[in-house]
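Let's practice the habit of predicting before peeking. Look at the sequence and jot down your guess about where helices and strands might fall. Then scroll down.
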Amino acid sequence: MIYASLNEKLGIAIEPALLELALTHSSYSYENGKTQDNERLEFLGDSVLGFIVTDHIYLANPDLAEGELSRLRNSTVSAKTLSVAAENIGLGPYLKLGKGELATGGSTKPNILADAMEAIIGAAFLSLGIDAAKKIIENFIFPLIDDKSTLLETTEPRTVLLDLLKKSGKPAPSFVVEHIGPDHDRTFFAKIVLVDEVLGEGSARSRKAAEAEAAIQALAKLRS
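Done guessing? Here is the structure:
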């Protein structure tokens, strides 16, 4: 069966019907008679993931204050981190997507991959219990948080940049954002300016992503 190889990668044996459901995107469901999709499993997996990650970082970081623990947890369960975990598993080719998503590279879109990752965790929990869900998280997500500073810089570059400038005694930068295109097809361009110096620039399909790209560039410039 096609999903046997995925179970082998996961190191567990999720019930085939649940695993297939976890990989079924709403676009596929809509195009095929509005059958079930993975959104309910995603909801469940999000809660299971949050509990296991919170327990882990609390025990592993006894010296971190509540605010730092929250930032680390939020970075760990972010779409960026989950999409990286999904890519490391090779989840994309297993996804059931509608024709529109297939045509626009849906199997590589971070949000779709992240949602499927949560759905698989939910499926593992329903099929085999909390230990199976924890095994997936331990094998594919915990390794991504070994380097906490890199994790935060990847998932929260704007916050890390502001903290770095503040600790250096420098003023807060200005974020200048412009866009082109109609509402349904916009491209955003962001600049981060410190006094009269442009620290970083970025472009993306959303304002937040453009600012994040600019912040990553700014951090690299400040540390070079």
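How did you do? The first strand starts at residue 174 and ends at 180.
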